[in-house]
Amino acid sequence: MHWQASQGGAFSPSAVTQYATSNGWTCEAPVAYSGEQMKLWTYSGQNVFALPFGPGDERPNNAEVKGMPRFIEKDSVVIRCETGWTRVAPGTSKATPAFGYIHLDAAGSQMAVYHVWGDT
Question: Is the pTM of this model over 0.85?
Answer without folding.
Answer: yes
